[in-house]
Amino acid sequence: MIKEKLTEGVKDLISYLAESGMDAESEKVRNLIKRKQMQTNLQEYIEKHEKWNEVSSLAEEIDFEKLQDYMKKEFPEKIDKGFFALKESERTLWRESLIEQICSYMEVETKEARERIKRIICDSLDIVHDFYKRDIEEKDYILMQELLDAFAEKTQGTEKEENVQKGSCINIKFLTNSIQCSSNCVGREKDIEELENLLETNDRILLSGMGGSGKSTLAEKLFERVRDKYEHIGWMNYTGTMRESILKSFLLYKEKCSEERIELIVDWLCQYGNNTILFIDNVNADFEKDECVQLLNGKVKMFVTSRTISLEGFQTVQIRSESLTECTEIFNSYYKEKRTEEELKEFLSYLDYNILLIELSAKAAKYAEMSLNQYIAQVCESGIDSVHDEIYTNYDKKEDRIIDRILRLYNMQGLPEEQVRILQNFAITPDIQLPFLYREWANLKKKDVIRLVRLGWIKKTDTYYEMHPLIKESIRKQRKISSQCCEDMLKTFYEESFRNMSDEFEINYTKKLIMRSFIDYFWNDYEIRLEDVIHMYGMMCIGFSEYDEAVKILKDYQELLMKNYPEEKEIIGEFDLSLSFVYFHAYNYKEAEKYLNKVDEMEEKEHWLISEANKFEYYNCHLMLACKNRDLDTAEECFKRICENKTEGYKFVTAVVNMTSGMIESGYCQKALSYMLKYQDEIEKRLKKRPSELAVFYSNLAISYVGIRRLAEAKKYDSKALEIRKRVLGFYNRDTAISYEAMAENYLEEGELEKAWESVRNAKQICEKIGISDECELYQNILHTENIIGKKMSYYLI
């Protein structure tokens, strides 16, 4: 089938590979895996890492003796099974599976230790890769792999290459991080067994029940029960859309950009049918309408929990209430003090036998330093009157009563203001697991957080914080939340450290979800102005290449301002400036100029004076567009204005980078180089925490050196830019493609044709994946370079 799609040039290469005796070569490479030198390299690397155990945190510590034993006995055989797979997708999945297997072998319990092992194994595989590339014959084999990957891309037509073939020996058991099951699941064995049997005949099951009825706990226990029955299994907390939930939770394809990653994961899931099951907690009533859910319809099993009664296409199971005996056992697991059975029975009835209320009240009673009878009396006599707001359309009266009970149990009256601030911070976060870093972001005192964890307000596991949605609801009803309670968190997000996109994807994405939740909560509160927060969120979206979302929220809030505050034209104009900035980064230069022209018109007609805070953004936008249009005179005038405004620090070096980009576009490489060398130390210092922008600077340096034929320096800085972009932006990114194309030209100049071919192939693959059109200048440059290299190697693709 594939050969029919190949051009004559591709057929020639297939013939070449066949003549090379790939099977024999593969066997030869497998036999060489135990070479003493490679084993020595690996051992030295592991021993070097072991020294860091002395200074690592407790969470990061791992058993290096056990790891060394694995690397000597098991690792070579594991290499045989996937390292030499011909398809890139198979090699990627094998690598992720290997890491999971080693973590299981090592009995790793903490996220920090897991990440440490992951780094060690990835580096070890790189050592193996480099070891074979040094040998001519093995290097040919590696090259064959890369060429076959290129041909698979070239010949797939409208068909997508299968990321994983059915029947593959690759076994990625856990698609997400494992979960920490709740201990209090009393008397549910029969329920779990019934749900397990139901999964045998149903692909989609909804476990429905009121908030606090124990749905999540039951689902967690079922997850543990069936985990060995399925080839692949995953657990997700629903974050509003399936797309965001997958990006937040899945372990696959982390090195890819968001759009590419979600496409690859969905395609991967579609390969396995009933061999895969996803547990999704706390979905909403629109879940079945979600685009990703519809794509996965009939492809994977789904077990979801929700407060909604039914979902189209799902078999509904209504969770039953716990019995008095079961509720008593749950209460006793927390509260050990003396009490009479009668008073406890009366109290449990007051709590509607709701699991959440029972756990919360038991924890609160434990720390109340009074008898249960006194505590019950206090709960019943204090608190807020009955809540009449309808919480959900389903079970409205009983839901209201449960909220009322939570309000009485968890009344913030009497709590110190610092603890109230902490609760309000948590109450407006999205319904996700928050990393421990959240305490630092929001500047929350550890002792106060611990106190609230003990009282049951906040749940804490080994790796994250969490607050039950019903507790959040009760907090929001007790007191109007002020935006000031989140000021510390906002200041942290404003800092330069947020733009350090070298952080884990999950951490940065969590920050984005928190900020969006903050905006949604205060959106209709006209007493709170969100301009600064909206501008910042737009910049966050640019960091994830989510330009459409940035444009939408900026336009929506601008429209809200025009409706409610039409007289504040300056503030409205600032949104035009932000929109111009977003469109520029989205490569929509026409719209960028349109919105910047609107700012110019307002300045001219309305005599609007650009505020000191926005002067840099204004002149910088003009500078960027002038450079793009190769209007060097205008660019220099804007740069002069920026200097006159005494711009310092990060903003100034950004202007230097933009200015030199314009000089390079206009052909003034020597002039650009003199600017960059003059400010190089300052630029590297200021952009240290903004690596993607530092990569632009290095790329500009390289281009300038090429312009004056200093090729060694050009290669040096192109290499630096490429490494940063791969690490920070990921593989499938336009800037990464630019760096690969530049490296291809460097290697071509030096006669290193194999490295040149590898680089240009990567650049082309990126462009095709992210949708860069054939007419784009970058793509044309790549094709031209590929043409030259291909002819020189006699591997030219028609």
TrEMBL record:
Gene3D superfamilies: P-loop containing nucleotide triphosphate hydrolases, Tetratricopeptide repeat domain
Family annotation (InterPro entries): NB-ARC, P-loop_NTPase, TPR-like_helical_dom_sf
Domain NB-ARC residue range list: 189-329
Gene Ontology molecular function: ADP binding
Protein name: Tetratricopeptide repeat protein
Species of the source: Blautia luti DSM 14534 = JCM 17040
